[in-house]
Amino acid sequence: MDFSSLQPAAVWRHFATLCRIPRSSGHEQAVRDEIATWARQRGLGVAIDATGNLILAKPATPGYENRPGVVLQGHLDMVCQKNAASGHDFLRDPIRAELCDGWLVADDTTLGADNGIGVALALAVLEADDLAHPALEVVLTVDEESGMTGAHGLRADAVQGRLLINIDTEDWGEFYLGCAGGADVVVDAPLTFEPVPDGLQAVRVVVDGLKGGHSGVDIHLQRGNAIKLLLRVLQSLAQAGIEFRLAALEGGTARNALPREAQAVILLADGHSAALQQAVAQVVAEIADELVGVDGGFRLQLTPEPTVPARALGTAAGKTVLALLHATPHGVRRMSARVPGVVETSNNLGVLRLDAERLQVTLMVRSLLDAGTRALAAEIVSLYSLAGMVAEVKGPYPGWAPNPDSGLLALFLDVYRRDFGGEAAVKVIHAGLECGIFTATWPDMDMISFGPTIRGAHAPGERLEVASVERAWRLLVAVLAAIPPR
Q1: Quick one: which of 72, 89, 103, 354 could link to 122 by a disulfide (CB 3.0–4.6 Å)?
Q2: Model-level pTM?
Q3: How far apart (Å, rounded) are the C-alpha atoms in residues 361 and 188?
Q4: Domains of the chain listed by start with CATH number
Q5: Catalytic: which of 77, 208, 261, 446?
Q6: Catalytic residue check, 295
Q7: Could you report the per-residue pLDDT of 215-255, keeping only the tens digit for each?
Q8: Cβ(228)–Cβ(319) below 8 Å
Q9: How far apart are CA 125 and CA 165, in angstroms?
């Protein structure tokens, strides 16, 4: 798409660069080097730390030297999700976006507006020669979506500013003062497969058509989790007395995205086709009825496999694995009593693989309370220990505790009221923002998070409201000009 007709032009020019250069988590070097080269050509300060984060600096404009420095912050990587039929290669291909009814959309893949548009806004501020602002530092972290590696690796002396504006939330007109912390729970357990006896047929069971979405922001919407729905279908077959062996099982591609697709290969005796179809029809009708108005695209398909796998789990072992996975929690565990309407604790069963005689499971636990993260993660670890499997808690990161007395928040609210009319909302988000980690690194730094409107982050069809980008730009520029003297 040609972004040249969109305003502000500098913001969209930088976003076009971010769409052009692949930037999946762990593969940000190319886009980081492109931005660093651009910054050096403009005479900006450029540093790359040991973790790979890019830190850019611009002096205060005349008259603003005595005002506290401001850090603008975003992350370079994006969640890479695509529809099954898409041939998109996230390591090689540019993101293909289209303008549709005021929204920028990527139909078959994620758009990368999370957090590309925040990065673009920050770079446009650095580029502009006609803005009033204090000393600026732009911190662009790596690997945020995969484990917040960049944020964890930032040293306390990396920046000098004492005000931080994180441009990584997704609702215009809302300012965020807190976020959930979280941790991954990872299982990688060996299993024993057995030779498959003669006389069995193989059937592939596929669940697809679901919306997916962000495992934190969208977890309360009750959308279908393809893995959990597939497990429910398989359990219903067992309950109907249909004996089968489990040869393969997989679903989901990211622990922070709601799984949209999952599939299994099961082996069963000839002559069970009618019973299989009947049992599946009943559970599919039940699921479809539950998802009315929430995830209406749900589909389940049964397809004969031309080749019967040589090995599979034994009948008893397969039942144990299915029961274990079926019992694994997913969804909202508890709503917050402190912040009404916000999820306190949740879990996403994000990735599942059963093949090559191993069971691999990745779950993402989130909570506004760090103790809530630890408690639910420990519960999952205990569940898998009952089956003799080791589940490890990895990559824990803290939540961001709200500071209602934030001076930066007061300034944002005043500028919003003056320039846009009405009152902005002050919120806490059930998602992981790097601010949670930054509060430990810089305990005295005043922080806020905001951004333009994004819908469908972490899922194909992610879209960005164009008009909200222009409003976010106006607000950011106005706030920088209004930073009071020390």
Answers
A1: 72
A2: 0.90
A3: 7
A4: 9-179+399-482 (3.40.630.10), 183-397 (3.30.70.360)
A5: 77
A6: no
A7: 999 999 999 999 999 999 999 988 888 889 999 999 999 99
A8: no
A9: 13
